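Late entry, evening session. Most of the bench is empty. Finally got around to the prediction I had been postponing all week. Sequence below, unchanged from the version circulated by S.P.
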Amino acid sequence: MILDRVENAAAWQRLGPGLAAALDWIVGTDFSALEPGRYESAFPGVFAVLRLDRTRPLEQAEWEAHRRYIDVQHVLRGQETMGWASRTGDWPVHRPYDPAADLEFFHARGDFVCVRAGGFVIFTPQDIHAPGLAGNGSAGAEVLKVVVKVPLTDPPWG
């Protein structure tokens, strides 16, 4: 997991061309002016999902992981708490891997970070994560964020 601010995005571009394209897209696009939905990048296989959500209480955390994509989750408006746990833990599977959705859910516990507007988090396949949470007791707060999906073609994950 990498947690940083959008103004520092260039520092992470050396992690591979797909991540560089995702970060360039985040920096160079006013996603807040777009309607929620799915958007295709000019970079092969990279796409974004713009979401307007409401945060959930920590007790409702859904711990998920992906096998084929890296998530770059960028908060545009509001703030949310995101959970993180290492996939190397021996976490029991809650819902088995669905290849069509590239999702697997776990009964996990981990650490939490608050991601405010302008912040982003990069989750790789070894990261189990629980996004969309309210860590400050403000469950139901509105959050606008974009999740850019980067296919696993770049080292060291592909």
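Two things to note before I forget:
The domain at 2-151 is CATH 2.60.120.370 (Jelly Rolls).
The helical segments are 17-28.
Will write this up properly tomorrow.
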